[in-house]
Amino acid sequence: MPVRPRLVVASAFMLFLELALIRWTGSNIVHLSYFTNFVLLGSFLGIGLGFLRVGRSTRQPYYSPVVLAALVLIVFYFPVTVDRQAEGVLYFTSLSTSGPPAWAILPVIFAAAALVLMGPAELVGRCFPELPRLEAYRYDLIGSLTGIAMFSLLSLASAPPVAWGLIAACAYGVLLRPRSLGRYLGLVTFPSLVVVAALAVESFAAGALWSPYYKVTYQQHSFNGVPIMDIAVNGIPHQQAIPAANRLEWERQYALPYERAAAAGHLDDVLIVGAGSGTDVAIALSKGAKRVDAVEIDPKLRELGGAFHPDRPYDDPRVTTHITDGRAFLERTGKKYDLILFALPDSLTLVSGASSLRLESYLFTEESMRAARDHLKPGGAFSMYNYYREQWLVDRLASTAQQAFGHKPCVDQVGAGQQAVITAGVTADAQRCGGEWAGAAAGTPPPAVDDRPFLYLHGRDIPSIYLIALGLILAVSVIAVRAVAGPFRRMRPYADLFLLGVSFLLLETKNVTGFALLFGTTWVVNAVVFAGVLVAVLAAVEVTRRFRTPPLPVMYAILLGGLVLAALVPNAWLLGLPVPLRAVCAVVVAFLPIFAANVVFAKRFADTADATVAFGANLLGAILGGCLEYLSLVIGYEGLLVVAGLLYLGAFALLPRTARAL
């Protein structure tokens, strides 16, 4: 295969394989639902090592399909799932699990991801010396965009993992040229068949569906003649589709919002966020709702509810379904409601590409509850309920509602598992409390806000489990780089490129989380943001190739000016704009520093003496950037801009004098 199409195919495969690994391992290892960037960091290490290995070995990277097959078999036979049947929510995987413990399985996943991705990266890196620097980078970006597009299309089609395995098998078959038929069959064909076969067994298992977010499994049964459908996602018990009458009889929390809301006697319009399989919708209809907007982020959960819920609530003409993020719906709609319900909206997973942002994180901030208040009719009420498990969490949410609505909410705690219902009328007269809430206990954390939307984090710190894991990741990365690439002095001339990689990862994280707030935490928004970042990078490369750009000191000044602009434009102001204008302003604010940063990188990269080592150093910087991303737990997402700015200043200080005139 000629070098240019080979580079595009290898780059597309590399990014596709990275996304597939993140998605599939997180579906079977419950710990990875809360460490989504764990596999990402392993991928960065592998990609960096693959580039650094170029020139040090001429052997084909047959190890990649072999390790992938071993990883698939290990995860297939030793999945990690939650083994408790009672309801609850997970905080940093604190519930007991079945399968290998985190300390045993997570290092295996990290090392395997690095080794698997090192193979395609080595194939990409071998193309770089055959082309001019920026031309090679250009085709690498085109391939990366192709990989994102392929994975996004498969997500849109809800394709099962066997489709990912077939694409991986074809890519290995095309890219790994056989030196002998026996070696090819043993090291490429056989491992690929193992991967496809194992994923086919999982894909076609009874009761398994694949949404863009989860592996969804369901089981239908009956209890005392009552039909029930149990739904689990990524091995975690998640929902039950039960007739409304039985749910109201068995669990009091579902009736309390209608008892506490003064408007419950005339429910013309009801909004349910977290509609899921439809039980909350069925209850609203049974309470006399005339129109229900049912918001659910996962299309497969809605599909299961439409097909199997005993009450068939989604067939009712009074119900309108919206497949989107709940916070985004609140920010876009102009409707007013008599009752707004946040109905157990626990995603049980993180936004891909963000270390600590869950799909529902922006729902539980003070700004979100203010948005809910603004969408209530006179006399309307807001209510939320869940199994909170911690008293401080109940108090924190009640305090958030108090701040947003300007008066104390009704707080009812019922049943086991710290079940609680928090109801706030648009005014104090719009709610009917059974008793006055005593207020938050001493030591209750303040309300979560959009800049730090970490509801389940009690303090302003980084949990020790993260610190230990990140320390081990950095230690393993240093040892692996030394073992594969040799002395670190090879990368010393490219220390500025290393820092560019660190800061760019932080900048990308800030944009992913920012767009999630502005437009929703849906997989579509996430894919568009990642593609947009690559398009901005590609545009920077094309501008650098075709036009005379300002010298690097000027570009650094433009970059820092873009960071200052991003810091000065508040998200609250952007959220107040109409969606089309919001999109334009958000793109300008977010992508100006990204474009400038990549003009800096392209100009510097074009002048390097060793393209593969320089590119590898930049990619390895992304590992440190992924670790520093956890600083957002302490300083918030806006604080990441400050850290990125300081790192860019450091990169400029390390810029060789000969490169300053570029």
UniProtKB/TrEMBL annotation:
Domain of life: Bacteria
A cellular-component GO term for this protein: cytosol
GO molecular function list: spermidine synthase activity
Keyword Nuclease: no
InterPro entries: SAM-dependent_MTases_sf (IPR029063), Spermi_synthase (IPR001045)
Listed GO biological process terms: spermidine biosynthetic process
CDD domains per record: AdoMet_MTases
Transmembrane feature ranges: 7-26, 32-55, 62-82, 102-124, 136-156, 185-210, 465-485, 523-541, 553-575, 581-601, 613-633, 639-656
One of the Pfam families matching this protein, by short name: Spermine_synth
Gene3D superfamilies: Vaccinia Virus protein VP39 (3.40.50.150)
Keyword Transmembrane: yes
SUPFAM superfamilies reported for this sequence: S-adenosyl-L-methionine-dependent methyltransferases (SSF53335)
Keywords: Membrane, Transmembrane, Transmembrane helix
Protein name stated in the entry: Spermidine synthase
Organism: Sphaerisporangium melleum
